[in-house]
Amino acid sequence: LSKSNSFNHSNNSGLAKWLARTQKYSSYAFLTFLGVHGATSAFSPLLFGVDSGNASLLLARTYFYQASPQVELLLIPGSLALHITSGVALRLHRHFRQRARYGGQPPASVSMWRWRNFSGVSRTGWIAVPFVAVHATLNRLVPLYVDGDSSQVTLEYLAYGFWQGKWGKWIGGAFYTGLVGLVSYHVVYGWADYLKVEERRKKLVGIAAVGTAAVWLGGLTRIVVEGGKIGGYLGRHYEHLYKVFWRRL
């Protein structure tokens, strides 16, 4: 009996490690894309202007989307989906171990599903999911649905939404502040956890998270101000894409 219990404990421990490593290393893959995305849509526009951002965006698109669609599928939605599902599976696994330990439903104070018991990294990750989904739908899926690709999408397309109606700036500002803040916290503090940063250094981690968000929002602000509401053919086309987005949302 003791050997059987030892074998089951070993299997459970092995599964937990496998799920934790899957969640960890899938985040590395997605961060490759996120780093490039941040450089093209935030850092480059912030330092060198919208035209520079568009040039770097075109270069990145060549590698991520046009050269090999499989790279996009694996690196972006694939790694993100694996990160999320492995996190859910790991929480389920720990929940069932709790049930075995307590002989049934564990107390709420230690429950894996009680929101208060979620870490700050987990909370921001889950709250960020719908923000990321909306952003991806607007900037990737809608152009793919209408045009078949994203070749006509530039940084001005992102800025265009801020100039729609009297509420565009407020809605866009609130949405992207939330998206950038949540993702910056989740990524920076998540990395700190992976690297086992000491508690006394967590203040530096907080500064890094704020700095990351500030750079991203600074780049976005310059895009909105300089990009303005583009006219002509592209302006009409962007208007159509936004209408499709709001109809499908």
List the helices and strands and how they pair.
Blueprint lengths: L1 H47 L1 H17 L2 H34 L17 H28 L7 H8 L5 H27 L7 H26 L4 H17 L1
Give structural notes.
The protein is mainly alpha-helical. The chain has helices spanning 2-48, 50-66, 69-102, 120-147, 155-162, 168-194, 202-227, 232-248. It is elongated and about 65 Å long. The termini are far apart. The model is unreliable at 1-8 (pLDDT under 50).
**Portion in strands:** under 5%
Question: Are there runs of 5+ residues with pLDDT below 50, and where?
Answer: 1-8
Quaternary arrangement of the chains shown? single chain
Distance between the termini: 56 Å
Overall shape: it is elongated
Order of SSEs, N→C?
A: HHHHHHHH
The residue-averaged pLDDT reads 89
Write a concise keyword list for the protein shown above.
249 residues, disordered N terminus, mainly alpha, elongated, 8 helices
Task: Give a quick summary of the entry.
The chain has 249 residues and is an all-alpha fold. The protein contains eight helices and no strands. Helix 1 runs antiparallel to helix 2 (50-66).
